Amino acid sequence: MSTSDDNTDPGNNSAEPALQYGVADGSFRAAGGEAGILQLVQAFYRHMDELPQARGVRAMHAADLALSIDKLACFLSGWMGGPRRYMEKYGSIAIPPAHAHLPITEVEKAAWLACMEAALAEQDYTPAFKTYLLTQLAVPAGRIVVLQENMGRR
């Protein structure tokens, strides 16, 4: 039996096996599929517009966020084990190099994660999944900062 501090969904009392986050499409299903991911991404970018600490990160985006919303939703779909929509629409991506042209430090990383944390707080996800997802998203965000540091940017 799983506990709430691992990466499974303990609230599943049906005969269906519990979701395992990060295994197959477990994270994708825990996020509510493509519709749930889009809802998360829309909330994320709304918080980017609203949170004062996110001004610098928001300035790195176009005024019209439609493309950014689509790209992040497509990316997260595949990243969470669902359909690889980003690959289908935009081709392959490696997150740190794709952001190499942007001046991203720990400050921007923290602001990005604050927007995601605020967006996650609005979602009807289990607390365990919210924690899992934020922890997992911090990994590529950290790699972007390391790449910037290795390029001599700070």
Notes on the protein architecture:
The protein has 154 residues and is mostly helical. It has helices at 26-30, 33-50, 55-58, 66-79, 85-90, 95-98, 106-122, 127-150. The longest helix is centred in the C-terminal third of the chain and has 24 residues, at 127-150. Residues 1-5 and 10-16 have low confidence and may be disordered.
CATH class: Mainly Alpha
How does CATH name the architecture?
Orthogonal Bundle
The number of E-state strands comes to: 0
How much strand? Answer: under 5%
The CATH superfamily label reads Globins
Query: Helix/strand/pairing class, anyone?
Result: mainly alpha
- Low-confidence parts, pLDDT < 50 over ≥5 residues? 1-5, 10-16
CA gyration radius, whole angstroms = 16 Å
Strand count, sense and closure of the main sheet?
Answer: none
How many individual helices? 8
The overall pLDDT, averaged over residues, is 89
Q: Which percent bin holds the helix content?
A: 55-70%
N→C terminal distance: 46 Å
- The name of the CATH topology is Globin-like
- What is the N-to-C order of secondary-structure elements (H for helix, E for strand)? HHHHHHHH
Count of folded domains: 1
Overall geometry comes to: globular
